[in-house]
User: What shape does this take?
Amino acid sequence: MKTLCSRMLALPVLVLTCLPLHAQLTATAGEIAVRSNQNAANLATNPGDDIAIQFDRDVLDGSDFAASADHVLSQGKYLVLYSTRWDHSGGQQRAEINTRLTLEPAGGGAPVDLKYGTAQGFIRTSSGANEAVVSGGTIVEAATTGDILRLHGTRTDENGSSAKNLIGGATSIQFLKLEDTWDCLRLSNTLDQAAAGNATFLEVFYDQVDEASAGAMSLSSGTDITFNQGGRYLVMANTSLLSTNLASTGRTGYGQRLTLDGTLVAGSTTTSYVRGHPNADGCHDGVLAIGTIVQATAGQVLNVQTRKEQGINCTITSAGTGLAIVQLPSTGSYISLSDDSGQDLNAAAPGASVNFDTT
Assistant: This one.
């Protein structure tokens, strides 16, 4: 058995038991598995390429295994977190990478693209801006032992002159087996919707309840999530964007935040940049993604909100938009950190740490 360790999700830290990884991921709640592509060579990608990312190392156990994209799950729910590293390797101008999770039923059948856990990155390839780290996460449920989860990376741009590498040894995926009795709510969309058209925040609308809460949470009006019980909740929200003008060369910036009774949840703001179509690069996609812990009292209302910072409008696409929430046990240990000092990272030395001054 490994010793206790911590894994960071946004600002909060969950303290959990780390156990070795086996071919099939554990069925025991509280156990963690971490895989990396430690021994993989750099993998070149071109526009339209869709990669099921292979992993070959058990990080916690310190052992290697035959490279595979398949993560075989036990029945039940998992918190899944991933981070992928992409670098420029040839050509010029702009490139875009989207990531997503797929779930293949045990015994065969077509893999299903999950709406939950999507993310996106952009590489400019100018003045040394040659890297992107694309990270995401969500709650995944395996209906049957033997269901197979895969992490995909897709080049969604149209810049045929630009090659980008998935970097070997710089991508990882983490699994935490959740207790089946923990109350979950999972929401998505069946239809696309207009994103906010100006700087005023607009609530994201959800019309599909993929998993109803057992009572701790409820959805009303498609936008309001009411916490019926006080406590801490892990909230994972990803909102997928697509430019409404695929011929435009203009830039677009969007932001997303969580609010509780209309007040910003500290540390929940995230942004996405949609570059457009200069030089026929075709960078039209974006994803706003966040994972954080929210502490609420009974009756408080959570909203996911977006706004346009500048540029052309976007559509929120149903294929990559989801909200997953799990009620955390009151017996757990949690820490949430923030900073209001205005740290200037531009003046910091390379590799300098981000500071936090408030718990």
